[in-house]
Fold:
Amino acid sequence: MSIRRITVIGAGQMGGGIAQVGAQAGYEVTLHDMNAKALAQGMEAIHKRLTRAVEKGKMNIEARDATLERLTSSPDLTEAAQEADIVIEAIVENMEVKTEIFRNLDVICPAHTILASNTSSLPITEIAASTKRPERVIGMHFMNPVPVMKLVEVIRGLATTDEVYHTVEMLAKQMQKEPVEVNDFPGFVSNRVLMPMINEAIYTVYEGVATPEAVDQVMKLGMNHPMGPLTLADFIGLDTCLYIMETLYEGFGDSKYRPCPLLRKYVKAGWLGKKSGRGFYVYD
Ligand code: CAA
Ligand code: NAD
Structure:
């Protein structure tokens, strides 16, 4: 199956990045968000990133303008998705909210449309079961920041067909990404390995072992991580980190995945990290 039109749902940090790399790869992309302000900010951020790439000499003006011409936005879900060959969902990491949007997309989209989720941790099989087309539902998990990171985890649900898998694998390659196939288990590979490390780093702060700055220095200087785990947690979003830990905790029923109480407290306070201006650090 060939893909021409992509609809991205959710104009936050991930959806904006996915829409950008899709348009850069030559696809017609429509970005949708239920929040008009978030949609406008998402489009503005793409514009700024492409303009910065021109200023840095990494892209010419013609390529930027052609990319922007392929990119449209709509606050109306039906208008955004009714002609899509593939929809890539990148909204909040919550099963109820995601299954509701998949149920709606199943009604709105043509029969051939692939419904993909950028979920960090939630079971694809369960998301697929909320539709009447589970064979056309798949996980397409990009990494943050999308324009920079090479990996896309591709996750089949129980019913996902080979045709859908290969179409998505090809799409990821067209977007200059490296697809890696993983099975449908909570957190897949990326967040099953990464998020317990971040959660443990939060425990070291919670238990007074070290300050956030010290924890980050240890992991940057000692392990050559590009960002310390607490800076990374703020960058990902502390709400997303908590949702992922809860999925691991519930999914495996193992106390080793218990979310740190300090993480819960910060999320309850609205300290969501960089996107809200405050997390383990304070941002302008
Ligand atoms: N969006 C787009 N591009 C960005 C960006 C952003 N938010 N932040 C940085 N960049 C780009 C810069 O424009 C720059 O591009 P050029 O080389 O083309 O000029 C490049 O990245 C390097 O940027 P900087 O020199 O400013 O900064 P840096 O060298 O410190 O790199 C970083 C920034 C790439 C983010 C680096 O710190 C890094 O790799 N951090 C770790 C990121 C990571 O682990 N991501 C995975 C998170 S987990 C996940 O995504 C899965 C999940 O489900 C939660
Ligand atoms: P975000 O908070 O930056 O953006 C989410 C956007 O979705 C918001 O603009 C919000 O208005 C919109 N939204 C929420 N519910 C909606 C609905 N019903 N319909 C339309 N729009 C809706 O979140 P994010 O960091 O971009 O994460 C999005 C998804 O990507 C999550 O599933 C997350 O787990 C996953 N993910 C995140 C990262 C990361 O590092 N942040 C990395 C990989 C995957």
In short: DSSP finds twelve helices and eight strands in the chain. The domain at 5-182 is CATH 3.40.50.720 (Rossmann fold). The radius of gyration is 19 Å.
